[in-house]
Amino acid sequence: MPKMKSNRGAAKTFRKLGSGKFKRNKAYKSHILTTKSRKRKRNLRKGVIVSKADEKKVSIMLQQ
Predict the structure, then answer these.
(1) What pTM was estimated for this model as a whole?
(2) What count of Cα atoms within 13 Å lies in the side-chain half-sphere of residue 55?
């Protein structure tokens, strides 16, 4: 049986933490930044934990 391949887009988007949860970056941070406030852009820099409802889907995409 061949090796299972992980979804490459998901591999670049999500990181598995030591606790088994997944971390991701926020969206809306790449362009048209002049209309967004400094506070909003600062908050978009922070990473967030993937929600419980999506954890199973992410782990399947990453083959973990």
Answers:
(1) 0.81
(2) 12
